[in-house]
Amino acid sequence: MSNSDKSVTILGGGLAGLAAAQKFSEAGWNVTVLELEPVVGGLASSFVTDDGFTYDLGPHRLYSNLDALNDHLKWVLDGNHAYRARLSRIFMKGKFFDYPLKTSNVLTSLSPWLLFRSFVDYMAVRMRNAIRPIPDDNFENWVVKRFGKTLYDLFFGTYTRKAWGIPCNQISADWASQRISQLDLFDAVKKTLFRPKNTVRSLVSKFIYPTHGGIGELGKGYQRLIEQDGNRVETAARVTRVHAANGRVTSVEYEQNGELHRMESDLYVSTIPLTALVRIIDEPPQPVLDAAAGLTHKGIVFVYLKLDRPQVSPDHWVYIPEEHIAIHRISEFTNFAPRCAPEGKTMVCAEITSTPGDKYWTMADGDLVRLASENLASLGLIRADEVLPGSHVLRIDYAYPIYDLTYRGHVKTLTDHLKGFENFVSTGRQGLFRYGNMDHSVAMGHAVARRILENDTIDHAKIAAEDEYFG
Ligand SMILES: Cc1cc2nc3c(=O)[nH]c(=O)nc-3n(C[C@H](O)[C@H](O)[C@H](O)COP(=O)(O)OP(=O)(O)OC[C@H]3O[C@@H](n4cnc5c(N)ncnc54)[C@H](O)[C@@H]3O)c2cc1C
Prior knowledge:
Structural class: alpha/beta
CATH superfamily of the largest domain: FAD/NAD(P)-binding domain
CATH class of the largest domain: Alpha Beta
Strand order of the largest sheet: 7-6-15-16-17-14-18
Helix content: 25-40%
Shape: globular
Largest sheet: 7 strands, mixed
Number of domains: 3
Bound molecules: flavin-adenine dinucleotide
Number of strands: 19
Distance between the termini: 42 Å
CATH topology of the largest domain: FAD/NAD(P)-binding domain
Strand content: 15-25%
């Protein structure tokens, strides 16, 4: 069979799905992408308002440690990119801390009492570890074991509890050893205060961002390339059923404009959430349904405030660990690309951790805009009267996979089940239940395609699974 006789259906038009689709398309396959939303890009989508504001789903810094992947991303962006120097800070105890922390900043911003307690705790935990080590059995213990209770409470526990919405002793230690922004902060504290040897983690100091159109330009770039090859990217197309028989997927059903369609192809690559997928694939066994029910996601409510001022701060984002503030992070898109707002105006995206049905999820949009405005005004970042009409809210339910203490077993049950279908692969952040970055999702899509097209041995399921900091 030549490639032009082969066909693949891609479920989900986020970066993982689009990157895989583009590789198959380039190789001459017949490709169809089915994307639920009216625009491609998934979590890396962007929107432009009629009055000239461009915004993303929270801050999106694009970068890979692999030069070839960076070159590929720039090629997809087709000249629409610039490098930016990363700038972010932490607002805590009424003060801004540089991020990464600077010694002078920490020493002058933390009270002598807190510095003393941090040091004593740190020494105490080191002695205790020498006699009877604290087990690495959850996130809290992992961090306390390495840094002591005071620093944990101060910089890490509060923010993590707030950002992920569950107690830190119910979060897997995996979370601590991979890329999480709070760990950056904590590493910085550790480096600043204790100057440890053999520190392997480092911060990405620059990143790529489109000069216009927001991070969603990457997804649109892929869509252009796929369509130029004569292949199809169907948007507003919800996959509702995956049919299977004798260990093979036979077709998928999707709904578009109120009509049901059926797609048949040789291969199927899914990047939709794993938990949703196993419920729509034919005849899921009860243990699979139970495992799916055991996995949870954290959602985010994004409140976008249009502001009548040119800039709030020079940061790409600011972490806000303070518990009395609902927002856990803000970002400002004009600092990613000046063209993201009309001259003299800016937009701030305030993120609030939420889950469908909880108090922030169900709060009226107007109340959320008021809450975010009041929060930021109370921090002294804006004046409430600077908030322009047209500020609005978006809610995303599959923002973060929650690595609780049981997630690994549940994910294995689901992925083992899916391995039973020989012409089917589930990949990407959602398809692997993996807390990864945009570059990881692109790499996963590429790995799936290369394994089939070039017999490459890279295992997509091992990407972003490393026990190391992701940058
Ligand atoms: C707030 C936030 C900030 C982030 N910041 C960064 C950052 O700074 N740098 C970075 O590199 N990464 C960042 N990320 C991560 C990055 O956005 C994701 O890792 C990446 O975009 C995931 O791509 P994906 O294709 O794997 O998954 P997704 O983007 O989730 O794509 C899955 C797609 O499947 C579609 N879908 C779902 N159900 C169906 C269905 N039934 N039928 C059809 N389609 C369906 C969805 O609409 C979606 O488009 C951030 C993520 C968040 C939430």
